[in-house]
């Protein structure tokens, strides 16, 4: 396959077998388990980037050492996922566990992933595996990570090994999760590894390399025995930013919002997906980097949409919301209309789509049901209109360490506290999702008619 499909808009069902509509939860193994040594484990235990002020990289009292430990409790959590009516389970394969030292494979970690996959199969859950979810080995980070193109072969080799080991048990693969989000957090605001602040040149270099790594890994997997049947996709954070207010300061807020949409949003990735051309712009300087894949549009079998909301900046550049909107704990509003718009825009790629993440940080659990119902209705509206959306994953199953915000952001369907006071208790607001999962048909045609 040389590139993505070219059919725009809604996609007709031309396949002989019924297309499944998958329903489930998404997790990152590191956020629930930590590891012995990775870029994020090292960063989480540091004081960077505010070391001079003595501020920890992770908000709150607890770090990743205190976690719900999916690694050792996977049977319990997979059973909980099945109990809510899931038919699929999205998770990450952790490179740092597989290859803790360059060229050294931990076969115990490989066996553990086989056990997880067998457990998913036993509970009727189709796995959706992400090869990179913000986390990689420290040896890879110290070698420059994805800022150096010469490191791409290391990621490709890891991807090939994973497919060799697990390819018979996994149909859906994602090379990367949210490249633009990781780039912005790690190179612009400095709250993720490597903790750089406003390094826009490094940010562009990293994003460019990661997109090239996707293409290289895709082609390598497809060339392997069984690779032609694998569905290899890419997952992107879909967010746009807007300015609130009027006057001169509104103009400043709009300028910031436009650049945020360009950097953190997905303008760069969308252009690359549609044309095969990567363009990275900087304020004042203009285009800093431009290249085009000689093979045209990048290869991708499916597209993962991570949609939470839109970002709104007040005139004094603080997160805000419209008068009629409800804010979440994560400083953005509940905005269901954006879900439909994201799906419609991504339909331009002409390939199947999955809502690979959507959810809400809601410590009081008084907005979760409203959010789930409103967002799911927008997905169903898109499906009814003919858009090729083949699944819905809620982020996340159990409250986890939400990167730099620590355990303060409660996204889980099940409550969990690092102090041991709560262990996997179903939240009241989660029950609306269970209702959707249990009542909706398991095939796309049935969902379209529901």
UniProtKB/TrEMBL annotation:
* Gene Ontology biological process terms from the UniProt entry: carbohydrate metabolic process
Origin, by domain of life? Eukaryota
The cross-references to Gene3D superfamilies, in alphabetical order and at most eight, read: Glycosidases
> What keyword terms does UniProt attach to this protein?
Glycosidase, Hydrolase
| Pfam families, per database record | Glyco_hydro_1
What is the annotated signal peptide range for this record? Answer: none
InterPro entries, A to Z? GH, Glyco_hydro_1
Q: Which family does it belong to?
A: Belongs to the glycosyl hydrolase 1 family.
What is this protein's record name?
Answer: Beta-glucosidase
Whose protein is this, by species?
Answer: Astrephomene gubernaculifera
- Cite the source lineage: Eukaryota, Viridiplantae, Chlorophyta, core chlorophytes, Chlorophyceae
């Amino acid at each position: 396959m040389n590139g993505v499909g070219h059919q725009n808009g809604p996609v007709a069902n031309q396949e002989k077998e019924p297309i499944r509509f998958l329903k489930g939860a998404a997790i990152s193994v590191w956020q629930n388990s930590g590891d012995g040594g990775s870029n994020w484990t090292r960063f989480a235990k540091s004081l960077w980037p505010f070391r001079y002020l003595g501020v920890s990289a992770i908000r709150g009292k607890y770090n990743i050492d205190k976690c719900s430990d999916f690694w050792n409790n996977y049977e319990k959590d997979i059973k909980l996922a099945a109990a809510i009516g899931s038919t699929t389970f999205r998770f990450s394969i952790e490179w740092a566990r597989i290859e803790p030292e360059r060229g050294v494979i931990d076969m115990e970690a490989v066996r553990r992933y086989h056990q997880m996959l067998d457990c998913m199969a036993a509970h009727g859950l189709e796995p959706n595996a992400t090869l990179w979810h913000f986390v990689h080995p420290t040896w890879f980070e110290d070698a420059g990570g994805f800022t150096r193109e010469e490191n791409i072969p290391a990621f490709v080799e890891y991807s090939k090994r994973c497919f060799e080991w697990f390819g018979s048990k996994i149909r859906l693969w994602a090379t990367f999760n949210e490249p633009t989000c990781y780039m912005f957090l790690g190179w612009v605001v400095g709250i993720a590894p490597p903790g750089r602040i406003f390094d826009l040149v490094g940010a562009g270099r990293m994003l460019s390399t990661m997109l090239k790594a996707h293409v290289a890994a895709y082609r390598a997997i497809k060339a392997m025995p069984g690779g032609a049947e694998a569905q290899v996709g890419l997952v992107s954070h879909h967010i746009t930013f807007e300015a609130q207010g009027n006057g001169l300061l509104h103009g400043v807020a709009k300028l910031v919002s436009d650049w945020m949409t360009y950097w953190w949003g997905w303008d760069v990735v969308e252009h690359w997906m549609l044309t095969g051309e990567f363009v990275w712009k900087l304020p004042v300087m203009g285009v800093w980097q431009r290249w085009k894949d000689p093979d045209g549009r990048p290869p991708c079998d499916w597209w993962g949409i991570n949609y939470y909301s839109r970002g709104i900046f007040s005139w004094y550049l603080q997160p805000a919301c419209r008068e009629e909107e409800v804010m979440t704990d994560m400083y953005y509003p509940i905005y269901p209309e954006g879900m439909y718009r994201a799906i419609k825009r991504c339909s331009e790629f002409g390939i199947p789509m999955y809502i690979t993440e959507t959810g809400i940080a809601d410590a009081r659990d008084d907005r979760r049901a409203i959010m789930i119902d409103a967002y799911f209705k927008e997905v169903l509206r898109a499906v009814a209109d003919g858009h090729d959306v083949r699944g819905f994953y809620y982020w996340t199953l159990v409250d986890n360490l939400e990167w730099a915000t620590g355990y303060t952001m409660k996204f889980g369907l099940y409550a969990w506290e690092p102090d041991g006071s709560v262990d996997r208790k179903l939240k009241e607001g989660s029950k609306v999702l269970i209702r959707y999962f249990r009542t909706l048909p398991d095939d796309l045609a049935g969902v379209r008619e529901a």
